[in-house]
Amino acid sequence: MSNSNSNSNSSLGDYASDIEFNETNRRYAKVNRIVLDKDSDEYRRRRERNNLAVKKSRNKSKLKTQQTLERVKQLKDENDELQQKIEILSKELRLLKDLFMAHASNAHGTELTEVDLKYLTSPETLQEVPTKLKLDHEYQ
């Protein structure tokens, strides 16, 4: 078998053929390739083109990776800002609900309890009021 293959390979001239397959490389397709002398101008030209293509591909890959990392950072920053706004708005909502409940209780003749007054006038609750003013200013 190798005798007939060597005859057919020699008749191909500059082409090498993957005619013989063994079990390990059966999954690869047959490829005819031109065998070039490493000192030839054609070989050098092809190598130069290939090197440029590889360089271009690597640069493109690096750029895409860099852009992805920048986008991830941007989204993380935006997420942090939104989480802070959620926290501020949640505190403001709690404060407004408590004020509403206090007002509704007073409107029906029920007085605020001492606990309610302490909570509504606590330093923590009062510190949230300037935050609300800051938010109102942001939306103007």
From TrEMBL:
<dbReference type="GO" id="GO:0005634">
    <property type="term" value="C:nucleus"/>
</dbReference>
<feature type="region of interest" description="Disordered">
    <location>
        <begin position="46"/>
        <end position="67"/>
    </location>
</feature>
<dbReference type="InterPro" id="IPR046347">
    <property type="entry name" value="bZIP_sf"/>
</dbReference>
<dbReference type="GO" id="GO:0000978">
    <property type="term" value="F:RNA polymerase II cis-regulatory region sequence-specific DNA binding"/>
</dbReference>
<dbReference type="GO" id="GO:0000981">
    <property type="term" value="F:DNA-binding transcription factor activity, RNA polymerase II-specific"/>
</dbReference>
<keyword id="KW-0805">Transcription regulation</keyword>
<dbReference type="InterPro" id="IPR031106">
    <property type="entry name" value="C/EBP"/>
</dbReference>
<protein>
    <submittedName>
        <fullName>CCAAT/enhancer-binding protein gamma-like protein</fullName>
    </submittedName>
</protein>
<keyword id="KW-0238">DNA-binding</keyword>
<comment type="similarity">
    <text>Belongs to the bZIP family. C/EBP subfamily.</text>
</comment>
<dbReference type="Pfam" id="PF07716">
    <property type="entry name" value="bZIP_2"/>
</dbReference>
<feature type="domain" description="BZIP">
    <location>
        <begin position="40"/>
        <end position="103"/>
    </location>
</feature>
<dbReference type="InterPro" id="IPR004827">
    <property type="entry name" value="bZIP"/>
</dbReference>
<dbReference type="GO" id="GO:0006351">
    <property type="term" value="P:DNA-templated transcription"/>
</dbReference>
<keyword id="KW-0539">Nucleus</keyword>
<keyword id="KW-0804">Transcription</keyword>
